[in-house]
Specification:
By secondary structure, this protein is mostly beta strands. It has helices at residues 55-58, 172-177, and strands at residues 9-14, 26-34, 38-48, 67-81, 85-108, 115-139, 144-165, 168-169, 190-206. The longest helix is centred in the last third of the chain and has 6 residues, at 172-177. An 8-stranded antiparallel β-barrel has the order 1-2-3-4-5-6-7-9. The N and C termini lie close together (12 Å). The chain has one domain (9-206).
Length: 207
C-alpha cells in the first residue's frame, strides 16, 4: 500500500531475464522516490552456466564457460499514484557483458563478412541500450506486488571472437548440417545498431 507522502523504496527481482533469454541473468532492481514526482533506480544482473535453467540451457545454447553481467540505471517521472498503484514513464540505460567459449561452431567474420567454422573460440558480446519506457507498480499485498514494464529505444551490439582454433571457411556440406538458429545474430562479429524492444515483469517487496 502507498501513502501519498510516503518515501517509497522497492527491491524487485526480474522474472523474465532468467527465464526468457538466450543469455539468462538474475536481475535485481532497486527503486526509490525522490520528491513527489520522481523515481530513480538501478538494476544489476548476473548469470552463468550453473545458474541457467531455461530453454536456452536445455537446448544447448548455454556453454560450460557462459557468464554474463549487466547494469541498468533508470530515471522516471511519476504520472499517477494512489494507494494501490504507481504509474510512471522514464529512461533506462543498460550495459551487458556476455562472455563464453564456443566449440565446433561458426561465425561471420567482421573483416570480410564471410562465414567461418572453428573448433574452439572465445566469445565476447557487449550490448548497450537507451530506452524510453512505461511501467507501473501494482500492489497485491500490503508490502509486495508486481511491476510490468515495456520499453523501446536503440541498442548497439559489439561481438568479438578471439583465440580461434581450427578456423576454416564454411563449406556447402557445413551449411546442410547446420539448422538456422534464433541465436544466429550472436555470431555476427563486429558492431551493429538497431531497435531495442523490451518487456519486463518483476516481483517486488517494499523496504
Amino acid at each position: 500500500m502507498l501513502a501519498q507522502e510516503e518515501k517509497l523504496r522497492l527491491l524487485g527481482l526480474d522474472l523474465l531475464s532468467p527465464s526468457l533469454s538466450y543469455a539468462p541473468r538474475y536481475t535485481l532492481h532497486y527503486k526509490q522516490t525522490a520528491g513527489k514526482r520522481f523515481l530513480w533506480g538501478i538494476g544489476m544482473g548476473y548469470g552463468n552456466t550453473p545458474s541457467s535453467f531455461n530453454f536456452a540451457e536445455k537446448g544447448g545454447f548455454i556453454h560450460p564457460d557462459y557468464r554474463s553481467w549487466s547494469v541498468l540505471p533508470e530515471f522516471n517521472y511519476i504520472l499517477a499514484k494512489n494507494k494501490q498503484n504507481l504509474f510512471y514513464i522514464g529512461l533506462t540505460g543498460s550495459y551487458i557483458n556476455h562472455q563464453d567459449q564456443f566449440n565446433q561452431d561458426y561465425f561471420r567474420k567482421a573483416s570480410d563478412h564471410k562465414q567461418y567454422a572453428f573448433e574452439q573460440a572465445d566469445y565476447r558480446r557487449i550490448k548497450t541500450t537507451l530506452s524510453m519506457h512505461l511501467a507501473s507498480v501494482l500492489f497485491v499485498g500490503k508490502n509486495w506486488g508486481f511491476s510490468p514494464y515495456i520499453g523501446w529505444g536503440v541498442k548497439n551490439r559489439n561481438v568479438k571472437f578471439s583465440h580461434i582454433q581450427g578456423m576454416r571457411p564454411v563449406t556447402r556440406e557445413d551449411s546442410h548440417n547446420w539448422i538456422p538458429s534464433a541465436t544466429y545474430y550472436l555470431r555476427h562479429e563486429g558492431s551493429s545498431t538497431g531497435v531495442q524492444l523490451e518487456l519486463r515483469l518483476a516481483v517486488f517487496v517494499k523496504l
